[in-house]
């Protein structure tokens, strides 16, 4: 009678072994027996059975560990494993499948259940013919010491994985700043792999984070960004948007001057970040090409992909919620309440460090007439355009807010009065020369603004409200003396 296949039966209960061996042999299978977990692993490697039937409770090492050891080894993970046990708790079945078992049968089963399970899994084993033949060529005897050592290595590996995942997942509860969350993720990776530079692109936000983990040349950073752009383009991001990205660079002091020797070939490891079946970003690590980096880095970030995605998705949603609370819904610049907080902080900082700052108040000329003539919808579009034009005239450190109605407030840190007047004039000219939407007759609408400027420290200012009062007085003077002009008050 031709044998259907080789079954390795691992169980320390002689009666169970006798009964199951009889069932399987009657069906035409050849059966080998292992009486403990170590022998099960050793015979799995040396005999390469078509199927392993495994008990959970065994001497030396348990069935769960045997299953995990074999399934974690690519050379033998093709082998189907059936867990056959007296444990009937749902949690036992969960852990059985969690360790990689292909089927789970509780003792007290009918013989035909075992037979049908083995027959169905035998097909899987036959489909792994090439993998099995490769394992056969590499097969070796494994002694007890080797099995115990592999079990300890597996335990260390799982402890390492759990530690990494917990450390990243813990960032979700910290509610720290969005940028600091990104920094923390790159710092965690820096403890685990010696990558040179890391990058994170967030598509919707238009943010590009670059983290220098090791001294890196400008040329290598340029190469890194080009590769990151190519990777992102594979997830429907458009490379033409690169110029508009907001770059945030961590550890800029680690950027070194270019030299021939400082531009090694880089290897890349990356993962897409997905929420609601949509890719919202891509994370990349890069380092000079070495076998260890090519082996370890992709596994590391893939291992942590779910935790990284969750943390970053939460961080950006939290950041969006914060921005919503401080942003004017129409113009997308800061709102009045938050501007008052920023002005108070700048006022106190100026006193503490003996620095100057300036304030500009801006009002749109004849805005009520525009609303009455063309309607409030067009008025809203004008407010949005003017906010955008103001931002174009400012530095990244400057702050603009919709102060109320058609009025905007602009805070210029570390700026004296002459510099503030120049900025106000630049804003005034930009708006005056801008063609707004076309109105009746097809002509573009032209709009002007009036601006009042003041600077602190200056005389007769005892608190924050005095600064606002001076800027308002200057604005009132600009409107009373003809509009479309800049006036200042010291």
CATH class of the largest domain: Alpha Beta
Silhouette: elongated
CATH fold node name of the largest domain: Alpha-Beta Plaits
What is the number of independent domains? 3
Q: Can you tell me the residue ranges where pLDDT is under 50 for at least 5 consecutive residues? A: none
Share of helical residues: 40-55%
Task: Name the CATH homologous superfamily of the largest domain.
Answer: Reverse transcriptase/Diguanylate cyclase domain
What does this structure look like?
The structure is a single chain. With 490 residues, the chain is of the alpha/beta class. Helices cover 48% and strands 20% of the residues. It has 16 helices and 17 strands. The chain has helices at residues 14-26, 37-47, 63-71, 90-98, 111-126, 129-138, 144-169, 178-192, 218-233, 291-303, 305-326, 336-353, 367-374, 376-392, 417-432, 464-480; strands at residues 6-10, 30-34, 51-54, 81-85, 103-106, 197-202, 207-212, 216-217, 246-250, 255-256, 266-275, 278-288, 357-364, 399-404, 407-413, 449-456, 486-488. A five-stranded parallel sheet has the order 2-1-3-4-5, with helices on both faces. The chain has a five-stranded mixed sheet with strand order 9-7-6-12-11, sandwiched between helices. Strands 14-15-13-16-17 form a five-stranded mixed sheet, sandwiched between helices. Helix 2 packs parallel to helix 3, helix 8 runs antiparallel to helix 11 (305-326) and helix 13 crosses helix 14.
